[in-house]
Structure formats: C-alpha cells, structure tokens
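Supplementary Methods, section 5.1.

A reviewer requested that the exact input to the structure prediction be made available. We therefore reproduce it here, unchanged from the version used in the analyses.
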Amino acid sequence: MKLLLFICFLMPSFMPDSLDLRVEQLHDSILSIDTHNDFAMMYAFPRMEYSVTKGQVSFELMKKGRLDAAFFAAFQAQGPCTEEGHEHAKFLSDSMLLSLHRYAAEHKHLGGIAYSAQEVRDLKAQGKVAMLLSIENAYCLGEDISLVDHYYDLGVRMIGLTHNGDNCVADAGTDSTQTHGGLSAFGYEVIRRMNRLGIIVDVSHASRQACLQAVEASQTPIMASHSGVYALKPIPRNLTDKEIIAIAKKGGVIQISIGRYFLSTLPKAQVGLPHLVEHINYVVELVGIDHVGIGSDFDGGGGIVGVEDMGKMKAITRALLEEGYSESEIRKLWGDNVLRVMEAAETYAKSF
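The structure derived from this sequence is encoded token-by-token as follows.
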C-alpha cells in the first residue's frame, strides 16, 4: 500500500482522474461516429501538394481517440460542368473509393468497411473501428443518374450535394452564381434515387435554397455532415436557424465541424473545445439533443486546440461531461443520432 502511494506521489501526471476514467467507461458502451474527413485524397494521391494539415486520420488514431466509426469522403473540387470535367471528377472519386477499400483490407486487424448501421455495431462488438464511405460533391455524377447506383455499389452511403461551386445537381453556398435557384431538376432526381437506394443526403456546402429544398424533397432525414452555426459565426458554410430547424423537423442531424473556420473568428491557436461546445449548445437549445453530432473535417482543414486529430476525440466527451451533458445525451450526440438517420434511410430503401 505504501509503495502504491509512493508511486502515485511520484507520477501524478500519469494517473487518470475520475473524469478520465468515466470517459473511458462511457466509450466502452457508446458508439462514437465522426461524419466527415478527407483522408482519402492524400492516401490515393500522396504526391499531390496540400494546403491543409494532413495525417489527422487513421484507424490507429481512431482507436487511440476512442472513435468507433467515421465517414471517409471521396472529395472532388468543383470544376467545369463539361463532359471532360465530369469524367475527371468520376476518376477522382473512383480512385479514392477504391483506395479506401484497399486501406481497409490492409488494416483489417483494426477495422473494416461498414455498409449499414448494424455493421457499425458489429465491428464495435469485435473491437474494431468502422469505415463508412461518402462522397463530397456530387460533381462526379455529372448528369448521369446511373452513377448513383454505381457509387452505392462501391459502398457509398452518403453523398454531399455540392462543394465550393455550383454543379449539375445543386447550387453551392459559397458560389454567388446560383445557377439553379437551389436544386436542379436533375438534383431532385438524384435525391429520389438516393432515397430509393438508402443513401443519406448531405447538405453541407449546399446553398440555403438547395438545403431547404433538399429537406423537403428527401423522403428520409438528411444530414449536414460538417457545418457550424451561422448565428455564432456568420459565414456561407454555416447553417442559419431556419435551416437547422428545417433539418431537425424532418429528423435530420447537424454535425458540428472541429475547425476554427466554422467555430470562431479568433486566431487558430486560440480556438479550442469551448468554441466547439458553444456551437453544440446552440443547436441543442434550438432543436434538441436528437439533432446534433460531430463531423470533424480532419485532413480537410479541421483541428482545434485540444482536438488536433482523431487520437484526441475523447477530449470532446470529457468537455461535454464538464459542460453538464448526461451520459444518455452524449450517447445520442456521439453516435445514436447518426445511426438513427442511417437506419431511416435503410428502412425506406427496403420498403420498395
């Protein structure tokens, strides 16, 4: 006993406090899901130059941070809406998705690809992390509706309608052109097909009109996979109260991004967990705990002080406990809300 006390006295920094132990115990029982990262670009094209921090995402880091699942996005920057442009976007998306399949196969001792909510749970039960596949920017669809099926067959279970520019599906929030006034006629067709297959509609990056129209058009709840609150930081990428309320009324979720760009006007070195929690609190107070979660944007510009990569994700859980969130509320925020949206999409698709 004296020896144990002596060791604790010598190494206090190595001894977890009671709140750290509570965080670990909570993560043993909950499912934690991050709904957006950009790992695939660097993994598929390692020789490209990147302007944002990379190396924030891996199965190893997920295990370290007690993150059970994440949507890995195949991203394409918006280019010209021409046959050549669409072919290049499809090449990029296909390359990234195939590379993610390769990564999962090469790291199968740590995790695997999940194609349904149940498979996320099954991987957790096996002590493994889950990779979910998504697309950031429907530019790769061009004007070919059959490509929605093509990407479903490759494992994609969520598609973001736009990135930073209008495409053939919808207008982007950061593009002043407003080509379609929201969704195009093809965009409505794409959403119908996504619903039919069980693919979640992601409105992060979409224009205000496109977002609201997508909420109305979709037969299943939608997601904003990585966004913030406009009332706290008024930028085109963040969601207004009207959009947040509309998404929530249809059962959807607003996933708060872990990045200074979304959270605060302060210098990056001063933006940390309090700012992330502030955005979470705002959504909870506006529409309730059932409609909020986390979408990091790691490897795509994400990262704040205290949560610099996936290995630090459990720090969010500690911050939420310190803020006064109950374990049942944290369970919803970290994963149950996303699983509900996934299951709603799957159930609707099975109805045909």
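The CA atoms of residues 48 and 300 lie 14 Å apart. These observations are discussed further in the main text.
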